[in-house]
């Protein structure tokens, strides 16, 4: 698996590159990849089918000048920015393997990430709990979430990407997001600031742990960004479609 540690200048470019890697692998039957990136500015990103009016405090976003974008995968709405590490896995779909369907892929990736990140927790008695897979694609310490994840599937490859909060300003969540239209049972109707936390680890540690878990090694730069795809992620026709 190739490793790319590459953050592009804007949130739209970063979201578009995740899709570029998936499409390049699908069309060229390319290599699997693990990419890390982080935005230098806050933004809100909704899942492919999310309705912005139901999920986002658009007035607060407008007041603060925070863009609302849309990703190509499912899942819920999140706030990203400094202190939020993103990863994107491009994985081959195998008919009889762990990536054969959505459910088995969720279990496969989440279990591997939980095992890789658990050693980063403070040792007892300072540790607040164990890392566990909660809901379908959350990683949590005890019952408090620090990582949300989603996937997009093509015929031969899939994109599995997500966030890992490590030093994020959690106050932004209540300000920019409404209470979600769908919630996992373990959330138990808790507000954002009671449901979400930061993993107390350095980003370099997180990257090393996940790269080791996937056997990822540094590789050549990604394929060029198609202008049409980047324009999609910048356009209101895409971002405001629902």
Structure explained in plain terms:
- The chain has 242 residues and is an alpha/beta fold.
- The protein has a single domain (2-239), classed as BirA Bifunctional Protein, domain 2 (2-Layer Sandwich), CATH 3.30.930.10.
- Helices cover 33% and strands 24% of the residues.
- It has helices at residues 11-28, 52-55, 58-64, 102-117, 171-176, 192-195, 203-214, 227-234, 236-239, and strands at residues 2-5, 33-37, 43-46, 68-70, 78-80, 84-92, 131-134, 138-141, 144-153, 157-165, 217-218.
- The strands form two sheets. Strands 7-8-9-10-6-2-1-11 form an eight-stranded mixed sheet, sandwiched between helices.
- Strand 7 and strand 8 form a beta hairpin.
- Helix 1 packs across helix 8 (227-234) and helix 4 (102-117) crosses helix 7 (203-214).
- The longest helix is centred in the N-terminal third of the chain and has 18 residues, at 11-28.
- It is globular, with a radius of gyration of 17 Å.
């Amino acid at each position: 698996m190739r490793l790319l540690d590459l953050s592009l200048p804007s949130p739209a470019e970063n979201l578009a590159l995740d899709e570029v890697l998936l499409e390049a692998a699908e069309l060229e039957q390319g290599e699997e990849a693990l990419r890390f990136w982080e935005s230098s500015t806050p933004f809100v990103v909704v899942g492919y089918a999310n309705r912005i009016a139901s999920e986002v405090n658009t007035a607060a976003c407008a007041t603060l000048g925070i863009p609302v974008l849309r990703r190509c995968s499912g899942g819920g709405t999140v706030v990203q920015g400094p202190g939020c590490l993103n990863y994107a896995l491009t994985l081959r779909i195998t008919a009889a393997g762990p990536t054969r369907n959505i459910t088995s892929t969720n279990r496969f990736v989440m279990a591997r990430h939980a095992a890789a990140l658990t050693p980063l927790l403070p040792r007892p008695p300072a540790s607040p709990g164990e890392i566990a897979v909660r809901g379908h694609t959350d990683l949590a310490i005890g019952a408090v979430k620090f990582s949300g994840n989603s996937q997009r599937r093509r015929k031969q490859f899939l994109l599995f990407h997500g966030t890992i909060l490590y030093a994020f300003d959690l106050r932004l969540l209540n300000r920019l997001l409404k209470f979600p239209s769908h919630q996992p049972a373990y959330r138990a109707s808790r507000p954002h600031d009671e449901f979400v936390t930061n993993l107390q680890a350095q980003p370099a540690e997180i990257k090393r742990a996940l790269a080791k878990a996937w056997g990822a090694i540094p590789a050549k730069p990604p394929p060029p960004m198609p202008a049409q795809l980047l324009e999609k992620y910048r356009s209101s026709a895409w971002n405001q479609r629902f």
